[in-house]
């Protein structure tokens, strides 16, 4: 007597009494579906991808640091519109306050700070701002240039000391002249 094992779910699918033809027909009738893939939602990287990214970052961390540093330096160095950018670290005043301040305390050219004398930002004021003291600087320059017997545009040449020396020499010459006049017995 043949022992026939019953399938677990009660169907006769794997019956040993089925012929090969019947089995093949059944296979044709019911196509076997492929194993369902587990779908990874977009935006969440797999573990392997995360590891790869971490390794790549570790490799290039030094380079990116340098790149970032260079980029930051470039951003600092390159001012997109210098006409509207104030020089940093200097005392900038506008309109009447500037006029008062420079008329009172900055009458001598030697006391004017170099950056404010020769900075192009002060030449052209943005709309709504007026650099009155830029005009004052110019006038002071012209005055000293004329006293030193130099042409007017010499005021804008950044010679600094040469200009002051020339002015001092003229003052000395005048003083000598005045002293001579005072000492001379004719007067």
TrEMBL record:
Domain of life where this protein originates: Eukaryota
Descriptive protein name: Uncharacterized protein
Chain intervals for the UniProt region annotation (Disordered): 1-52
